[in-house]
Structures are given as C-alpha cells and as structure tokens.
Amino acid sequence: MNNRKIIVFTDLDGTLLDHSTYSFYEAEEALELLREKGVPLVLCSSKSRDEIKAYRKKLSNNEPFISENGGAIFIPEGYGGLKCEFDKIDDGYLVIEIGSEYQMLVDAFEKIKRKPDINIKSIAEFTIDEIVELTGLSREEALLAQKREYTLPFIIYGGEDDVKIIKDEILSSGLTYTEGARFVYLMDGNDKGKAVEILTDTFKKNSPDTRITTVGLGDSLNDLPMLEVVDKAFLVKKEAGNYEERIKVEGLVYADGVGPVGWNKAVLDLFNNN
Ligand SMILES: [Mg+2]
C-alpha cells in the first residue's frame, strides 16, 4: 500500500456554508487547497439532490455526493472508472438508494399528525414564501428544497414535552428522525454514516492498492453518524459560537471557528500537518 488518498466528507448548512447567508466564501482558501491537491470533496447534506447539484456547480465539484441525510448516494456515470452496485441510473448518476420512498414518509407523517396534541408541519405543507422566511433561502432554492426523495423535513411547534411526544410517536411507528439546524427530518433508517461507509467501501474496493483516509466535517446532530465512521472527525462551531454538545466522538477535533471559518482552519491545519 504505497498510495495514499484522502477523501473529505462535508456537511453543507452551518458547516461549509454559513448558517444565515449560505456562503462558502470564508472557506475558499481551504477549498482551493483541496482542488490543488486533487482531494475529493464529497458533499453530504440533509439538502435535496437538486439543491446539492446547485452547490456542486458553484463549487466546480464533480465528485459523488450524498443527499438527504444519507437517503441516497449519487455517483456521476463514468466517475474515475468506478464500478459498484447501484439501484438505478438517473440523470447521469448511478444512484445507491438507502432511504425509503418519500410518499411512505408523507403517509406516516399524516398519521402521526392526526393524533391529539401534536402540532407539526412538514416542508411539503409550507408555501414557498414561508420556506424563504424560515430558511433565508432564495425562492429558487426554496423550490429545490421542497423536492424531497428520501426524507421529510418538518417543524415541531411546542415545548420540550411536545418534542418528546412527537419523537416517541415517530420511533413507535418504526421510523427514525434526526435534527439539522432548522428542521427535524423524518426518515426510514438512513443516516449520513451509513452512506459514508458505503461510499468509502466503494472507493476502497476500486482502489485496493491505495490507503484511504476519510475526513468528516459537521456541526449538528445529523452529522454524528458521519463523524462516527470517518477516520478524522471535525466539529465546527454553530452560529451562536457553541459546539453541538450531543456530538461525542473519540478523537473529535473541535475546529476553531463558526461554520466555514472553522472549516477553513480545520482543512488547512490538516494538510499543513500531514
Ligand atoms: Mg449542518
């Protein structure tokens, strides 16, 4: 094993992208370094496929990506001659599907919503104007955010007790949930960690003579499964300046900065020390 390769998996919202402005400007220096070194940057977000595609364009990124909290892996057809098993070819991507069908989640959500004392609202029920108000996305981006395939983002109205009741309902209906900075996500067993593991295995099988080191960067609870499976895990600060305290991973590095500022420092440090 003489060859070495680093693969960087990153969350978008609040990590590579600023929580409020969705800008990655503060991380430009480190992004440029990754481009120079030819290090694959895999976007691994709760965002929808079309939202991530828009960011790949802005970042001139042609790598595989992971949508909707590990709902699916998208590998560009012909990418590095890579071979793998996949569920379908769609829009020029080999798609490995991990999450369940969206309609099933919508139906399950409706069932939970009908129970007494439950006040929840899914992204499908919000108008575009409401999503813009809630997220700070542009109207075009809000439309893309609504195009879900594997997870259903929603908002819980109420206090801690209500949150607990709703989460218990989700678990007892056999589904799972995770939390990003703005939404809770209804899912069926997918998480970022499963997707990162599958994609890492695919890279490893296709390059048996290469020693692959994986790096992960995140900010919120939905990043925990990803940070648990990578070799080097970094946590950036949230907008309020704190770290997500529920993320505890062995060897976790606390990046010194909020969102893309921390991202930039973490990636520059990683390569300057290796
Ligand atoms: Mg995030």
UniProtKB/TrEMBL annotation:
<keyword id="KW-0479">Metal-binding</keyword>
<dbReference type="GO" id="GO:0005829">
    <property type="term" value="C:cytosol"/>
</dbReference>
<dbReference type="InterPro" id="IPR006381">
    <property type="entry name" value="HAD-SF-IIB-MPGP"/>
</dbReference>
<dbReference type="InterPro" id="IPR023214">
    <property type="entry name" value="HAD_sf"/>
</dbReference>
<dbReference type="GO" id="GO:0000287">
    <property type="term" value="F:magnesium ion binding"/>
</dbReference>
<dbReference type="GO" id="GO:0050531">
    <property type="term" value="F:mannosyl-3-phosphoglycerate phosphatase activity"/>
</dbReference>
<dbReference type="GO" id="GO:0051479">
    <property type="term" value="P:mannosylglycerate biosynthetic process"/>
</dbReference>
<keyword id="KW-0460">Magnesium</keyword>
<keyword id="KW-0378">Hydrolase</keyword>
<dbReference type="InterPro" id="IPR006379">
    <property type="entry name" value="HAD-SF_hydro_IIB"/>
</dbReference>
<dbReference type="Pfam" id="PF08282">
    <property type="entry name" value="Hydrolase_3"/>
</dbReference>
<dbReference type="InterPro" id="IPR036412">
    <property type="entry name" value="HAD-like_sf"/>
</dbReference>
<protein>
    <submittedName>
        <fullName>Glucosyl-3-phosphoglycerate/mannosyl-3-phosphoglycerate phosphatase</fullName>
    </submittedName>
</protein>
